Structure formats: C-alpha cells, structure tokens
C-alpha cells in the first residue's frame, strides 16, 4: 500500500468565528473524498464540536485535517489540539448525555460513536488532544490496514502556503518504508525539492534505505536539495534499518529506552561525504518517531501519562503541539503497532 505525501491542513481556532471556516474546509475535503451527505454532515458535526470545545476550554488551538486511505476506502482524520485547562475527568466527558455548556451538544461520547478511530489525551494544565477518523464508506474487513499504524502532524512555515517538508509511506505485508524530507529553506522552492524527493522515493521504495538515500542524492541535484531520512521496518525480522542525510531526527522508543538513530551530515542533491545504513532491533512495543528541525529536540513522552501506548496520530499531535519552534516548516511522524 502506498500513501501519498499529503500534509495535514492546519486550521487555527482562536475564536468562535474560525470554527465555521474549519467546518467548511472539512466539507470541501469530504466532497473530494466521496463522502455522501450523511457522512459529510458527520464530519461537520465532529469538527464543530471539537472546534467549539477548543474555544471554550482551550482558549486557542488548532484543527488539523488529513485525508487517509485504507485499501480502497477514503477517510478524514481530524486532530484537535489546545494547551488550555484540560479535561479533569475524561471518562465522564465520554459518557452519553454529557456535553459542555455552549457546545453543539453531541458530546465527546457521540463523537467516539461517529468515528472509526478515536483517541483523546487530556490532563489539567496540559491541554487536550483529540484524534477522530471518519470514512466515506467503512473499510472492508480485508482492509483493516497494515500491522504498523502511521501518524503525522505538520504545518508550513508561518506565512507560507506550501511546506518544504514532505513524507511518504509504502507498506507491503510486514514491511513498512517511511520517508521524511525537509527541503532546504522554506516556501515553493523547498516544496519543489520535497515533492521530487517523494517521487524518487516511490520509484525506489522497495530498495534498501542506503540505496534510496543515494538515489535521492543523485536525483535532487537540479533542486535546492533536502535533508532526507528513510526507515525500513520489517515486522517479521524485528529489524529497523535507517539511513539519512541532514538534520532530521529519529528515535526508537520503548517503555524503558530511547535510542537515537544515526544520520550523517549533508544535504541530498548538494553535499554528501558518505551514506551509511544502520540496523537496529525493532521491539514489539516499539514506537518510531521522526521529525524535521521545525520541532525542538527536548521532547519526552514520559511527561504525558500513557502517551507512548496511544495511537501514533495522537503521539505526533501532542509533540507537534508542545515542541514546534514556530519559525520553520515542521513535520512529526510516528509509527507503532496497531495494538498501541
């Protein structure tokens, strides 16, 4: 299964007037993905509830919308994040009939029932992060998806319409190939380099990581160049192989360890002294996190209760919310087994 590098669409939510704009953006995305009127209405309800809760209880935050694919099914992943007062009792908020005053009234419990995939993390003084996925039509039983789930949160440099970051995934059986790219600089020229890197990745994704990075280096010479990193996770062999050029950070996390992966200095398409491929054990309870330099490096999943055991989309969303620098393109990619 190939997943195109379609970045999430971040929508600021700072006052009630921005909630309808997010709802309209969701409706447009739902239309392009083939949602019927009922499905599009459910997308609108979920976005409205999440956005209204952000305004009332978070003060300000964001909604990120992303098209997702599972087999032949198309869906929308909705991420809502804020750094407000948080929800003191998440379980109570998910009960039927519970809704915060002034919201549309469907409540988080109803949102959970409307969605195929739902996850929430909230704590006093830490804010709230919600992930909800709706499908144009339910995925077939045969399309439960690969054993490794992927989550992404991303945004362009402030003031830019296009991001110079990009990502891509190819999953076949127990093998997952992941690419993360940071085009040099930001804006349209960086985005062109990133798009070309993704194209080259799809042409070479079944090769080993070092060979893919070499192909990207050779193929990006006509562009501004990019930092690139590729990880190959083989679930059957319990191995992760990794190769990178430039300042894309990556790590394998377990409940007791955090192992940083080695990437060499250089810029694909511009300067490169060497490309090496490194092999690491892939633990059953492992979480892979990679990010561009728009995210600070001092993040720690242990500061959040149970975050390591939650969905990769929630992990990416929380790190994006709390550690983005705000002065560059940023992409956070997380991967973990579907039991997480």
**Sheet with most strands:** 6 strands, antiparallel
CATH superfamily of the largest domain: PPM-type phosphatase domain
The overall pLDDT, averaged over residues, is 90
Low-pLDDT segments, ≥5 res: none
Task: Supply the CATH class of the largest domain.
Answer: Alpha Beta
Quaternary organisation of the protein chains? single chain
Total strand segments = 18
| Order of H and E elements | EEHHEEHHEEEEEHHEEEEEEEEHE
Radius of gyration: 19 Å
Overall, the morphology is globular
**Domain tally:** 2
The fraction of residues in strands falls at 25-35%
Please report the distance between the alpha carbons of the first and last residues: 21 Å
Summarize the structure in words:
This protein is of the alpha+beta class. The protein has two domains: about 1-140, Histidine kinase-like ATPase, C-terminal domain (Heat Shock Protein 90, 2-Layer Sandwich); about 145-335, PPM-type phosphatase domain (Phosphatase 2c, domain 1, 4-Layer Sandwich), CATH 3.60.40. The protein has seven helices and 18 strands. The protein has helices spanning about 20-30, 35-60, 90-95, 105-115, 190-205, 210-220, 310-325, and strands spanning about 1-5, 10-15, 60-70, 75-80, 115-125, 125-135, 150-155, 165-170, 175-185, 225-235, 240-245, 250-255, 260, 265, 270, 280, 285-290, 330-335. The strands form four sheets. Strands 1-8-9-10-11-16 form a six-stranded antiparallel beta sheet. The chain is globular.
